[in-house]
Amino acid sequence: MTIIITAFERSPDGGKGLARDTRVRWALEEVGQPYEVRLVSFRAMKEPAHLRLHPFGQIPTYEEGDLVLFETGAIVLHLAQRHTGLLPDDANARARAITWMFAAVNTVEPPILDLVIAKFQEGDKPWARERLPLVEDRIRHRLLQLSARLGSGEWLDGGFSAGDLMMVSVLLRLRPSGILDEFPALAAYVARGEARPAYQRAFAAQWAVNAAGSQAGNAT
Ligand code: GTB
After folding, report:
1. CA 220 to CA 216: how far, in whole Å?
2. Is the dihedral of CA 15, 51, 68, 117 positive or negative?
3. Is the CB of 17 under 6 A from ligand 1?
4. What does the pLDDT read at residue 123?
5. What is the CA radius of gyration of the chain?
6. Atom 13 of ligand 1 has which residue's CA nearest to it?
7. 138-174 as b/e, with b when 16 or more CB fall inside 10 Å?
8. Are 137 and 130 contacting, i.e. CB atoms less than 8 angstroms apart?
9. pLDDT digits (tens, 9 = 90+) for 140-195
10. pTM score, two decimals?
């Protein structure tokens, strides 16, 4: 059955791979599933045809026959459960890997998204300069905790898993800020993720679409 995902017709990041379709592309590459991409404009995302796939009018979406999914985490989990390569066989290890997926999107990503909003959507507000350091320090606090748990490990819990795929993807969003480099173990962890052949293929595929794109990078 052909898998079809949606992605930005032109990502605001101009091909840096930060839009969430890269996470889905990466998961598809890790599990060796071919896929097609339907590119959508910002306008088309808010029209009924796309809203039937995604109630919030966003990308990515995932279609596989009758099955339609939205939410990157759910799509990656679906792929990880249906195919080998992203979740361990042992039931407890599997549950822990899924826990890391949730930690990535529920605990680590929110302060990072706060920073994106603070910089790009609230940057002109009179209180923005005062708020920014607070937002950055909340990120540092989380990264300190995450770095302590990672320690000298290669991945968060044994072998590479969907938990690492989601965590690396979330941390990548921080790179433009420079904060990631304050945590060398996490920077190296992210670099290990990016070095995976599956990530390289996913990145190249979105780059081929977006490389000539714009420079804004401010959509959340
Ligand atoms: N919780 C959903 C998920 O995980 O799938 C969030 C989906 C989401 O935020 N989608 C964004 C979107 O469709 C694109 S990925 N935005 C358009 C809209 O809401 O109208 C977020 C994103 C956008 C841009 C950059 N960038 O330019 O660097 C990075 C990430």
Report:
1. 11
2. positive
3. no
4. 86
5. 17
6. 58
7. ebeebbeebbeebeeeebbbeebbbbbbbbbbbbbbb
8. no
9. 999 999 999 999 999 999 999 999 999 999 999 999 999 999 999 999 999 999 99
10. 0.95
Please give the distance of CA 97 from its chain centroid, rounded to a whole number: 16
CA of 152 to the centre of ligand 1 (A): 32
d(CA 52, CA 134): 39
Atom of ligand 1 nearest to the CA of 18: 29
List the domains of the chain with CATH numbers.
3-85+198-219 (3.40.30.10), 91-197 (1.20.1050.10)
Residues 98-156 pLDDT 10s: 999 999 999 999 999 999 999 889 988 889 889 999 999 999 999 999 999 999 999 99
Output the residue whose Cα is nearest ligand 1's atom 29.
Answer: 19
Asked if residue 19 has its Cβ within 6 Å of ligand 1, the reply is yes
CA distance 50 to 111: 29
Taking alpha carbons only, the member of 65, 52, 59 closest to residue 24 is 59
CA separation for the pair 158, 216 (Å, rounded): 37
Instruction: Take residue 214 and report the two structure tokens written for it.
Output: 């714009």
